[in-house]
Design a protein that fits this description.
Blueprint (H helix, E strand, L loop, with lengths): L1 H45 L4 H31 L10
Helix pairs in contact: 1-2
């Protein structure tokens, strides 16, 4: 009936929103990580003796950048599998 049709549309939009959100997060993460690695390599090229310190800061920074994408993944998975609003749309 009508309720079932609405729930199908709701879940289709929820999956689409999850995919778009994760795609945008991954794009931003990729750009940020590429920029970070680029600057780290430039720094190492300028001061090879500081390689260890630069590498340590780089790895920590990359982990923080990646964590933002993982948060987007968690939100996407919640939207798809444990949607808290699904009860309002399932007949």
């Amino acid at each position: 009936g009508k309720a079932h049709e609405g729930s199908v549309w709701y879940f289709a939009f929820a999956v689409t929103a999850a995919a778009l959100g994760l795609g945008i997060a991954a794009l931003g993460c990729g750009l940020a990580q590429g920029n970070a690695v680029s600057k780290a390599v430039e720094g190492i090229a300028r001061q090879p003796e500081a390689t260890g310190q630069i590498q340590t800061v780089l790895i920590i920074g990359l982990a923080f950048i990646e964590s933002l994408t993982i948060y987007a993944l968690v939100v996407a998975l919640i939207l798809i599998f444990a949607n808290p609003f699904a009860a309002y749309f399932v007949g």
